[in-house]
């Protein structure tokens, strides 16, 4: 029996996923959590095999950060991200945090079941759209720091603010921006942000 924990800040989503999983003989939901703190407490107490993790958990730590915390435990569960977000930044942050898989919430139930079973076996499981995005990362590719800088750029931060945030000099920020402009084939901040959102490298700022 594969023991699953659900981490999502929407009760209706958790209820829907629980109902789906309870129809499978080899899957059982052992607990639910809505934020970082309750997720860590749940995993420490119940030791699930797989954690289904949303990336947006409302206020506080996001799903990628919680994933990193869970994977750092002495007996870490496997983490399968289940989210609506499919930008390169979201995918890479989750995988870098230690997620074993990345599935989108519009996936058919059978894909979800297969993903959970594969994750429990230690396999890497990616939604077809996510896998396609990673395969398309050919040619000039933005570094993790450049994607991080684009995210800050999208919030309207100045070069000085970004330098302070990243603990680097303004000259380093300007150098990163020059590389970003070149790779995205743009010549200003606004165009860089627009292109990054268009290419689903970062999310639009809400």
UniProtKB/TrEMBL annotation:
<dbReference type="InterPro" id="IPR000792">
    <property type="entry name" value="Tscrpt_reg_LuxR_C"/>
</dbReference>
<keyword id="KW-0597">Phosphoprotein</keyword>
<feature type="domain" description="HTH luxR-type">
    <location>
        <begin position="135"/>
        <end position="200"/>
    </location>
</feature>
<dbReference type="Pfam" id="PF00196">
    <property type="entry name" value="GerE"/>
</dbReference>
<keyword id="KW-0804">Transcription</keyword>
<dbReference type="GO" id="GO:0006355">
    <property type="term" value="P:regulation of DNA-templated transcription"/>
</dbReference>
<keyword id="KW-0238">DNA-binding</keyword>
<dbReference type="InterPro" id="IPR039420">
    <property type="entry name" value="WalR-like"/>
</dbReference>
<dbReference type="GO" id="GO:0000160">
    <property type="term" value="P:phosphorelay signal transduction system"/>
</dbReference>
<protein>
    <submittedName>
        <fullName>Response regulator transcription factor</fullName>
    </submittedName>
</protein>
<feature type="domain" description="Response regulatory">
    <location>
        <begin position="3"/>
        <end position="120"/>
    </location>
</feature>
<keyword id="KW-0805">Transcription regulation</keyword>
<dbReference type="InterPro" id="IPR001789">
    <property type="entry name" value="Sig_transdc_resp-reg_receiver"/>
</dbReference>
<dbReference type="GO" id="GO:0003677">
    <property type="term" value="F:DNA binding"/>
</dbReference>
<dbReference type="InterPro" id="IPR011006">
    <property type="entry name" value="CheY-like_superfamily"/>
</dbReference>
<dbReference type="InterPro" id="IPR016032">
    <property type="entry name" value="Sig_transdc_resp-reg_C-effctor"/>
</dbReference>
<feature type="modified residue" description="4-aspartylphosphate">
    <location>
        <position position="54"/>
    </location>
</feature>
<dbReference type="InterPro" id="IPR058245">
    <property type="entry name" value="NreC/VraR/RcsB-like_REC"/>
</dbReference>
<dbReference type="Pfam" id="PF00072">
    <property type="entry name" value="Response_reg"/>
</dbReference>
């Amino acid at each position: 029996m594969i023991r699953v924990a659900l981490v999502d800040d929407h009760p209706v989503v958790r209820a829907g996923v629980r109902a789906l999983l309870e129809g499978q003989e080899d899957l059982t939901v052992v607990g639910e959590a809505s934020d970082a703190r309750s997720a860590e407490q749940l995993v420490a107490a119940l030791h699930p095999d797989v954690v289904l993790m949303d990336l947006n958990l409302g206020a506080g730590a996001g799903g990628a950060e919680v994933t990193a915390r869970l994977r750092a435990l002495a007996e870490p569960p496997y983490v399968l991200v289940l989210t609506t977000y499919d930008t390169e930044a979201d995918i890479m942050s989750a995988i870098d945090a230690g997620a074993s898989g990345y599935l989108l919430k519009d996936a058919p139930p059978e894909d979800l079941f297969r993903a959970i079973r594969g994750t429990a076996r230690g396999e890497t499981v990616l939604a077809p759209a996510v896998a396609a995005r990673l395969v398309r990362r050919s040619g000039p590719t933005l570094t993790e720091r450049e994607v991080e800088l684009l995210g800050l750029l999208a919030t309207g931060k100045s070069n000085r603010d970004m330098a302070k945030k990243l603990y680097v000099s303004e000259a380093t920020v300007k150098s990163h921006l020059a590389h970003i402009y070149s790779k995205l084939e743009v010549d200003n901040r606004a165009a860089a942000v627009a292109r990054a959102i268009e290419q689903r490298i970062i999310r639009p700022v809400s």
